[in-house]
Amino acid sequence: MRRIIPLNRDWGYKESFDENDILGNDKEFSKVQLPHANKTTPYNCFDEKMYQFVSAYRKNFKVDHKAGERVFIDFEGVMTYAKVYINGHYLGDHKGGYTPFSFDMTDYLQEENVLTVMVDSTERNDIPPFGFTIDYLCYGGIYREVNLRVVDENHIDNVFVKPRVGETNGLELEVFIKGQAEMIEVCIFDEAEIARKTFNLGEKISFDDLAVSLWEIDAPKLYEASVNLIKDNQVIDTYSTRFGFRSCEFKTSGFYLNGKKIKIRGLNRHQAFPYVGYAMPKRAQKKDADILKYDLGLNLVRTSHYPQSRHFLDRCDEIGLLVFEEIPGWQHIGDKAWQDVAVENVREMIERDWNHPSIILWGTRINESMDNHDFYKSTHELAKSLDDTRQTGGVRCIENSELIEDVYTMNDFNLNDVNKPLRYQREVTGLDREVPYLVTEYNGHMYPTKRFDSEERMVEHCKRHLLVQNDMMLQDNISGAIGWCAFDYNTHFQFGSGDRICYHGVMDMFRIPKFASYVYKSQADHDYVLEPVTLWARGEKGEFEGKSFLPLTVLSNCEKISVTVKDETKFFYPKSQTYKGLSHAPFEVKDFETIQDWGSGWQDGIFKGYVNDQVVVEKSFSAAPIAHDLEVSLDDVVLESGDYDVTRMLVKVVDQSGNILPYINESVDVHVIGVGQIIGPKRLNLIGGCIGAWIKTNGQAGSIEISVESDRFENKNLSIQVK
Ligand code: GAL
After folding, report:
1. Residue 135 Cα to ligand 1 middle (Å)
2. What are the residues facing 527 on neighbouring strands?
C-alpha cells in the first residue's frame, strides 16, 4: 500500500555545486533541515544577489520496497531550477520554483542511497518570473517539503473531485491511473462514511443526491474522498483527498458562492518572511491564513504572484477564506521556451490544487503583462481543459486588453483621483457590454506607509483603503477588490524604500498591524473593533483650526462611539453618508472643546464603542505615556517534534494604557535554550515600538526556554513545550 515518507530532516547542504558533488565526499556539506533557505538574509538593506547562486543538497536514505512497487521522490518547491541525481544517476530537471515535481527512482535504488540535488537559485532568464525586473524577491533553496512516495507499480496518480451543487448535491470524480487495474472503489467521508460505490475502469464516476452541507465562508465544511484501486480483487492503492461542496461563479453582476452574492474583500499576499524568505514550514503558512481571515476580516486572498504553499491553501479551505491563485510571473513575457514553462506552470498549479474548495479562480496570465493572444489563449485553454469547474482570470493593468479569460481582472491604480477611486468597468475594458470584473490590486506603491510613519500619513493610508473599499461596494458590476497588499515584503533595489522593503502592506513583515489593517477588520463582524487612528500625541499632527489632535479618524464596527477627554464626553456616529458603500463607515471625531489650541493642557482620552447602547469595547490613551512594560507573547506555546516547527514571538514596549510606544527604539536580547532556537538575529531592535521573531524547534521533543532581556525592564521568560 501507498506510503508517504517525509524526507525533510538532516540534509547536507553546500553553497556551490560541481559534478563531484553528485556522489562525492559528505564532509563538505553542512547539516540542514527542510524547508531551507539557501541563505539567511538580513531584515533589510542587503544585496539581493546574496542568495542568487548554485548550491548542492544531499540526502542519504534507505527505503524498503517490494518487487512491483515504485519509489518516487516528490519535491514541493525548489527555487528556481533543479537537477536531481540518485546514486550518481541523473533523474531529470525541473524549471520553476513554485510548483511540485517528481521522479521515479526505483530502478536506481540501492540498500543505501544518495540523493543529490543541484539547485540553481540565480534569476535565470529562461524561467518565469525572471527576464526583466520584478518587485519581490524569490530567494533560493529547497524551500518546501520533500517526500518519498512508495506505491504499487499500478497506482493512482491524481484524483480530481468535482462537486455538483444545486437542487441536489453530488459529485463526479476523475481518477488518473498509472499502470493497470480493474475497478475503482470510492468512499466519501464526513466523520463517518456517507457513500461508497464501485466502478469499472473507464466508467463515469458519479454520486447523486448526497445529503451534505455546503462549503461556505462562515461554515467551511470539508469532506474526504478516498479512492481504492482494485486489481485481482485486491486493493492495491488508496488515494485520499479533501474537498468541499460548493459552486462559485463570477457573473456580470458580481461573484456568487453557492448561488449567493458575495462582495470580495481581499488583499494580496506574498509568501515571504524576514530572514528566511520563502522557507517557512506548515504552522507559519497556516498562521498567515488565520491572520488574513481573523485579524484582517478578509474573505479572499490573492496568492500574488505564484502558487503558494499547500499548507496555506489547506488552511484557507479549513477556515473559509477564498483564494485567487495564479501562475508565476511579473510584467515580463519571455521567448517561446519561457512561455512553455509558464504553460507547464498552469498544468502543475491546477493539478496540484484542483481539490481546494477555497480556490475560486485560476490566474492564467503573467501579472500585469501586455496582451499576447497566442500565449494567453493557450494558458486559458489549458486551464479550461484541465478544470471545467472554475473560471479563469488574468491580471492586467492595461485598458482595452483582450478578454480571453472568463473574468476581467484588473489592477486599478486610479486613486490619485480621490473622487473616483475605481474606474468604471467599461472604461477599463473598452467593451460595449458588461463582463465579470474584479479589481485585483489598488494602493500599494501609490502610498507606501511604514508602521512607524507619522500619524498624518497613516490616516491618509487608511483613507485610501477606505475609499476603494467603499467604491467597490457601490459599483454593482465590480465583484470586489483585492488591495495591495497584506504584508510588507523584501524587494529588488528598483522598488521599495531603498532598503529593499516595499512598505505596501497593511501589516509589516512580522504581520504586526498598521492602522490600515483595521480598515479591513472593521468591515467584518468577528470581533468588535475600535481603533482610533492616532498616536495620541499633541505635537504629532500639524495644527488644524486651532486643535492639533483633531479631526481624528476612528475605525470601528460599532454603532456609535463616545470620546471622553477630561470632563467632556461626546458621541459620534459613522460617516455613512460619505461612505455609503461600507457596512461600517469610519467615524470622525471633531468639534472638541476641552482641548483648545496648541499649548493648552493635554489630557488622557477614553474611547468607547457601543452596540445597542451597551459598551462593547473600550480603549484609552495616556496624556503622558512612558515606557511601562515590555510585553512578550508567543502565538503558540505547544509545538510539534519531527520536521521542524515554528511559532512567532512578538516583543513590544507599551505605556500605562497598554498602547505600543511608536518611537521607542531600544534593543532586547533573546536567549533560547532547549530544543529550539531563534530564526534571525538574537539581538532585536524595536521598530516602531514592536518587533517579531520566529522561534523554531530542532525536531526533538522537550522544552524551549526563552528569555528576553532589556536594559529597562525585568527579563521576560517564556516557555514552549515541544510534543
Ligand atoms: C503592481 C504589481 C505588484 C506590486 C504593486 C505595488 O503593479 O502587480 O506586484 O508591485 O504594483 O503597488
Report:
1. 7
2. none
